[in-house]
Write a structure and sequence with these properties.
mainly beta, 3 domains, five-stranded mixed beta sheet, Immunoglobulin-like, 7 helices, 49 strands, Maltoporin, Chain A, Ferric Hydroxamate Uptake Protein, Chain A, domain 1, 27-stranded antiparallel beta sheet
Length: 854
C-alpha cells in the first residue's frame, strides 16, 4: 500500500511539473505604423513549437516551458525576441521594423516568399492593412499599381475584368500563385481576376517578385511572380463584420467567424461576403459572392493538416468593344459609354457579359521530420464553370438597332419582332455564351533539409492534370423559334433551342509533371542559391463537332513537350546598411496549347512547336537605414519564340470579331527600377518609385493565322512589327505616396501615380500583309508603318482616411477611399489605327467601408 501511495505521489508530482512547465502567452504583432501583421510567425526559441498571428495580428501560444524567449518574424521585417515567464504571459504589442538585415526565413516552403536583403530578386510586399486601406472598390490587381514595373487597368471596366502587366508581360507570362499553388490557366496561361474577387477579404500578404522570382516550382514567371498568401485559421476565437458602399450602387457586406485554436489542436475559420452594384460603365451591373473556409488540425509537434477552400461565383456585364475618342466625346454618358448592352421588355440586358465560378480547394500537410528536415505537401483541386456572353447569327447587324442615337442602348425588342416574324425560318440574331469549363487536379510536394550549417537543399515534384471543355451555347433566341447551325457534322442543319451547343465543342487535355531542386547557401553576409527545374507537358484534343464518334481523328494523338530551366543568384550585405544582388537564368517553356493545335482541329497540328526561350539577368542595390530604405535594380530579358492569341475587334459594328494565333514572336525587355521608403517621424511615412522600361519586338512575323468566331481559318498574313514598341502597358511609371498618422488609430494616405509611354496594341488586320496581295516573291514589300499610336501620358491622385474607435466593447474601423481624386480623364487601353479605338479609365470613384471586430 505504501508503494502504491509513493507511486501516486511521484505521478502527481510529474504531472504538476509538466503543467507548471507550460505557459500560455498572448500578444499582438504590429508594424511601425501600428497596423497588425497577420501571418507573422511566433516560435518558442530552441523548439519547433510555434503559431502565427491571426488576421488582426493577435496570437496565443502554449509554451513547453514556464519561461523562455518568443521569436517573432514576418516577411520583410526584422526579427524580434521577447522574453516570457509564468508571471509575464501577456507580451503586449510587439512592433517589427522594416529592415530585414537579420530576418530569418519564414518556413512556408510552398509559398516561395522572398526575404528582404537575403533573396537576390527585386521584390515588393503588400500587407493586409495596405489592402484594406487602399483597395476600396478597385480591382484586386490595382492594389499593385504603385509597384515598380507594374501596369494595372480595369480593361473594359466590368467587375473583375482588371488586368495586370509586369515589365511589359501580360498575365500569360506572369506566374500567379495562391498559397504556393499556381493558378494560371493550363491551356493559355491567363489569369481571370474576376475568379479571385474574394481574395481581398482573406489575403494576409501579397508579394510581387519581378523577373526570375524566388518560386522554386517551374512556373511561367517571365515578367515575374505574384505570390498571394491567404489567411489560415485564426488562433483566437472571434471574427468580424464588414460593410461598405460606394459609387454607382456598390454594396458589399460579409462576416468572418473563427473558433480559435482549441485544446484538441483544431481550429476553423469561415468568411463570406456578398457584393453587387450597377457598375461605373453603362450596362455593367454585377452580383457576386465570396467564400473562404479553412480547417486546421495540429496532431503533435510534427504533423499539421490544413484544408482550405475558397471561390467567388459572380456574373457581370462587360464592355468588350473599344470605341473611338470622338465616340466617347459625343456620347451622352462620356467615358462611361458602352455599346454592348440594351433593353428587352424594359429589362436591362448585358449583351457582353461574364458568369463564372472557379473554386480552389487544397489539403496541406506539414511534417517536421526533424530539427533539420521538413516536408510540405499540397493536394489541390479546382473546378470552373461558366463563360462569356456575346452575339451570333446570320444578321448580327441587327444589334446596331438602337433606342435613339448611336450612343444609346441596343433595341433588343426590335430584334425579337424580326425573329418572331421569321417563324419557321429561324432566328437571325441571338445571344450566346462561349463556355470554358474545366477540372484541374494537382500535387505539389516540397522537401527541405539542412545539409550543413550553411547549406540547405530544397527539392520537390509538381504534378497537374487538366481538362478544359469549350463550346458555345444558346442563351436567348430573342423571339426566334430556333437557331440553325451547320457546324456539327453529327447533327447538320440542326434546329437548336436555348441551352443547345453550337459552333464548336471540344476538350483540351493538358498533363504536367515537373521536378525542381535548389541549393541555398548562407554564411555571414552572403546568401546565394542555384536551382534547376524540368517539366513535361502533354497536350491532347477531343473534338465532338468536326468528327464523328467513329472517326480516328475525334481524339488527337498526345503530343509531349519538355521544358527546363536553371537560375542562380547571390545577395551580399556589404554592412548593416548596404547590400547588392545579382541573378541570372535561362529557361525553355513548352509552347502553349493553341500553338500545337493552331488551326483548332485535330489534323492540322504542329507537333514540333518551338519551346519559348527566355534569358534574363538582373543587378540590384539596396540601402536600409533607420529612416530611409531604397532599392535600385536593372534588368535585361530576351524572350524568343513566344506564342499568343489575340482578339481582333471587327471595325464593322455588330459583326463578329476574329482571333489571331501568333507564333514565333521575339522581344527584348530591359529597364531600370527604383523604389524607396522614408520615415522622418513615427507619424509620417513617404514611399515612391520610378520605373523606366525599353521594350521592343525584335523580328517580323510570318504566317499568322486568323480565325472567325466559329474557329474557321479565314486568312494567313505576315506582320511587319520589327522595332515596334511592346504595347498594352506603360513603359514609364512613377509613384509617390504619403501616410500620416494623426493618432494611434487615425491615418490618412495620399498616392500619386504617373503613367507614360503607353503604346496601343497593333491592329493585326491593319498591319497585315495578306498573302494574296503580293504573290511575286521578288516584288517590294509594302511600306512598313512606324510605331503604333501612343496614348497621352497621365497621372492620378488617390486618397484614403482611416479611423478606429469603439462601438461598445467592439473595435471598429472606418475607411473612406477616393480614387482619381481630381477626376482626371485618361486613356488606359488602346488599339492602333488612324482613328484609335480606346477604353477610357474611370473618373472619380469613392468607397466607404466599416469593419467591426468581435
Amino acid at each position: 500500500m505504501k508503494k502504491i501511495t509513493n507511486l501516486l505521489l511521484v505521478a502527481m508530482f510529474m504531472i504538476t511539473a509538466t503543467v507548471l512547465g507550460q505557459t500560455q502567452i498572448t500578444g499582438i504583432v504590429v508594424d511601425e505604423t501600428g497596423e497588425p501583421l497577420p501571418g507573422a510567425n511566433v516560435v518558442e526559441k530552441g523548439t519547433t513549437n510555434g503559431t502565427s498571428t491571426d488576421f488582426n495580428g493577435k496570437f496565443e501560444l502554449k509554451t513547453k516551458a514556464n519561461e523562455g524567449i518568443a521569436v517573432i518574424t514576418f516577411v520583410g521585417y526584422t526579427t524580434n525576441e521577447v522574453t516570457f515567464s509564468s508571471s509575464k504571459t501577456d507580451l503586449g504589442t510587439i512592433q517589427l521594423k522594416e529592415d530585414g538585415s537579420v530576418l530569418e526565413e519564414i518556413v512556408i516552403t510552398a509559398t516561395s516568399f522572398a526575404i528582404d536583403r537575403k533573396t537576390p530578386v527585386a521584390v515588393s510586399t503588400v500587407k493586409a492593412s495596405d489592402i484594406e486601406r487602399k483597395l476600396g472598390s478597385q480591382e484586386f490587381p490595382e492594389i499593385l499599381k504603385s509597384t515598380p514595373g507594374v501596369y494595372a487597368t480595369k480593361s473594359g471596366g466590368g467587375f473583375g475584368d482588371g488586368r495586370i502587366n509586369l515589365r511589359g508581360f501580360n498575365s500569360e507570362n506572369v506566374a500567379v500563385m495562391i498559397n504556393g499553388v499556381p493558378v494560371n490557366d493550363m491551356e493559355n496561361g491567363r489569369v481571370y481576376w474576376s475568379n479571385w474577387a474574394g481574395l481581398s477579404d482573406v489575403t494576409s500578404a501579397m508579394q510581387v517578385q519581378r523577373g526570375l522570382g524566388a518560386a522554386k516550382v517551374a512556373v511561367p514567371s517571365i515578367g515575374g511572380t505574384i505570390n498571394i498568401l491567404s489567411k489560415t485559421s485564426d488562433v483566437q476565437k472571434g471574427g468580424n463584420i464588414i460593410a461598405s458602399t460606394g459609387n454607382d450602387g456598390y454594396q458589399k457586406y460579409g462576416f468572418t467567424l473563427s473558433t480559435g485554436l482549441m485544446d484538441n489542436g483544431f481550429a476553423a475559420t469561415v468568411s463570406f461576403a456578398k457584393v453587387s452594384g450597377e457598375g461605373y460603365v453603362d450596362g455593367t451591373q454585377f452580383d457576386g459572392y465570396n467564400y473562404f473556409v479553412n480547417l486546421t488540425k495540429e496532431f503533435n509537434e510534427q504533423h499539421k493538416l490544413s484544408f482550405t477552400t475558397f471561390g467567388a461565383p459572380q456574373r457581370h456585364g462587360q464592355r468588350q468593344n473599344r470605341s473611338t475618342i470622338a465616340t466617347y466625346r459625343n456620347a451622352q454618358s462620356g467615358n462611361r459609354f458602352n455599346p454592348d448592352w440594351g433593353y428587352k421588355n424594359g429589362q436591362l440586358v448585358s449583351i457582353e457579359d461574364n458568369f463564372y465560378h472557379k473554386s480552389q480547394s487544397s489539403l496541406n500537410h506539414y511534417w517536421t521530420i526533424s530539427d533539420k528536415s521538413s516536408l510540405s505537401t499540397a493536394l489541390y483541386a479546382s473546378f470552373g464553370r461558366g463563360g462569356g456572353g456575346g452575339t451570333a447569327g446570320s444578321n448580327t447587324d441587327l444589334f446596331n438597332n438602337r433606342l435613339g442615337g448611336d450612343d444609346q442602348p441596343v433595341d433588343l425588342d426590335s430584334i425579337v419582332e424580326i425573329n418572331s416574324a421569321n417563324g419557321a425560318l429561324g432566328a437571325e440574331a441571338i445571344l450566346r455564351a462561349s463556355r470554358n469549363d474545366h477540372e484541374w487536379y494537382g500535387l505539389l510536394s516540397t522537401f527541405k533539409t539542412e545539409l550543413s550549417d550553411n547549406l540547405d537543399l530544397v527539392a520537390g515534384i509538381d504534378w497537374r492534370t487538366y481538362v478544359g471543355t469549350h463550346y458555345r451555347e444558346i442563351t436567348d433566341l430573342l423571339g426566334g423559334q430556333y437557331f440553325l447551325d451547320n457546324n456539327n457534322v453529327n447533327n447538320p442543319n440542326a434546329a437548336l433551342k436555348v441551352g443547345d451547343k453550337f459552333s464548336y465543342h471540344d476538350d483540351g487535355k493538358v498533363g504536367w509533371l515537373g521536378g525542381f531542386a535548389q541549393l541555398e547557401y548562407t554564411k555571414d553576409r552572403l546568401s546565394a542559391f542555384i536551382s534547376t527545374s524540368v517539366q513535361r507537358s502533354t497536350y491532347q484534343r477531343v473534338d465532338y463537332f468536326q468528327y464523328t464518334p467513329d472517326s480516328e481523328n475525334r481524339v488527337s494523338d498526345k503530343f509531349d513537350f519538355v521544358g527546363f530551366g536553371t537560375k542562380g543568384g547571390a545577395n551580399y550585405r556589404l554592412n548593416d546598411v548596404h547590400n547588392v544582388f545579382a541573378n541570372i537564368g535561362y529557361f525553355e517553356r513548352p509552347a502553349n496549347f493553341d500553338a500545337v493545335f493552331e488551326n483548332f482541329n485535330n489534323v492540322d497540328v504542329n507537333p514540333d512547336a518551338e519551346n519559348q526561350k527566355i534569358f534574363s539577368v538582373e543587378l540590384g542595390y539596396g540601402i536600409r537605414s533607420e529612416k530611409f530604405a531604397a532599392n535600385l535594380n536593372a534588368y535585361y530579358t530576351e524572350w524568343n519564340d513566344r506564342t499568343f492569341t489575340r482578339r481582333i475587334q471587327n471595325r464593322n459594328p455588330g459583326e463578329d470579331d476574329f482571333t489571331a494565333n501568333i507564333l514565333g514572336v521575339n522581344a527584348l525587355h530591359q529597364g531600370i527600377e527604383f523604389d524607396f521608403t522614408y520615415k522622418p517621424t513615427d507619424k509620417l511615412n513617404f514611399t515612391g518609385m520610378l520605373s523606366l522600361g525599353d521594350w521592343k519586338y525584335a523580328d517580323d512575323l510570318i504566317d499568322v493565322k486568323i480565325f472567325d468566331q466559329d474557329q474557321n481559318l479565314v486568312e494567313t498574313v505576315d506582320l511587319p512589327i520589327k522595332g515596334l514598341r511592346v504595347s498594352d502597358a506603360a513603359q514609364t511609371t512613377a509613384a509617390l505616396g504619403m501616410l500620416y498618422k494623426f493618432w494611434d488609430k487615425t491615418s490618412i494616405t495620399v498616392d500619386y501615380n504617373y503613367f507614360a509611354d503607353i503604346y496601343a496594341q497593333f491592329d493585326v488586320l491593319d498591319r497585315a500583309i495578306f498573302k494574296g496581295d503580293n504573290p511575286d516573291p521578288n516584288a517590294p514589300a509594302p511600306e512598313r508603318k512606324g510605331n503604333t499610336w501612343k496614348a497621352p501620358n497621365y497621372s492620378t491622385f488617390d486618397a484614403s482616411l482611416r479611423h478606429g474607435f469603439k462601438i461598445g466593447n467592439f473595435d471598429t474601423t472606418v475607411t473612406v477611399r477616393v480614387n482619381n481624386l481630381f477626376n482626371t480623364e485618361y486613356i488606359a487601353d488602346a488599339l492602333d489605327a488612324d482613328d484609335p479605338l480606346v477604353w477610357f479609365g474611370f473618373g472619380r470613384t469613392y468607397n466607404l467601408g466599416m469593419k467591426i471586430l468581435f
